[in-house]
Amino acid sequence: MINRLCFLCFALFLHAITSFAQQFPDKVNAKDSSRYIYRFLSGDTLLYEAISRDSILIDKQPALLRDRIERFLLSCDSVDKQDRMYLSQRLIDVSITEYSGISQIIDRKAHEWLNKKISLIIDSTGKRHGFGSPDSINSLLSPGSAFQPIMLQSLGTGYHLINSGWIVEDTIDTPECGIPAPMIKFLSSMRARAEYDTLNITCSRFESTVSGQGTYQTQTISGQTLRTTGIIAGYSRMAMSTALHVPIHFFGTNENKTTMYVNTPKGTLEQKAKHYVTTNVTLKKMVSARGIFTVSGTLKSTKPEKSKKKNRKRK
Fold it and tell me: FRET partner for 82 with CA separation of 20 to 30 A, picked from 63, 98, 125, 236?
């Protein structure tokens, strides 16, 4: 009951923010619209770079600040007859710098999430139909923790007039954040934005404001049950290629209020914290049957061009 009330309060808070913003709305363009879809082909491999900053507050301790640079591969293993895309993701490189107060700066080039492969099944609207991990026995969290901003978010359906809004609501599992997969129930207020060109790429854009609740549960080495709940308030912007229908750039920021529960022989212990996280994810390279793409260039075909026969006039 309390969880439902918290979720309702955040939904009302989101509505209040949206209503205030609509006092000075951008005029809806009735002559222009966008359709937001994902389109990955079997064999597609995309290299992304994520630059992130975390600020973690626990009780009255100095804030733990963490800067992260991550590179991960997103691959499409197959596409079924219902056009659902079977994706896999793997972190291949990470650099973490963290410090707290006047403590010494710690640099790390390793993380337990490195080279761990996860998989998920989505359709063109981003709706999730399944997930998994070959290493599902071990409990692990990604460098961004359980409730970080999600790039492959639900998009809704249909065409949307520029500057118009729509609502997406769902409950999803997020294996890209941890094993076992955290579960998030959310409500997202979406808004279509005008297309723009960058780096020779025409991109469709949208913004979203998210409120939700998350749960992550696992067991410690000693067998104790560890459960973390989170109240999530977030904002994100996405730019997607209109030709390829893949994310080119994603910006997301979340404020997460978390509570960790640990069952012990003496009862349940609670630890509250706040986690502020901001991330920028950029496509660096894409290898596909559609071509080879890099952010500094244009789409180049991987297929050899057919030789053109010249017609010679007979004398």
Answer: 236
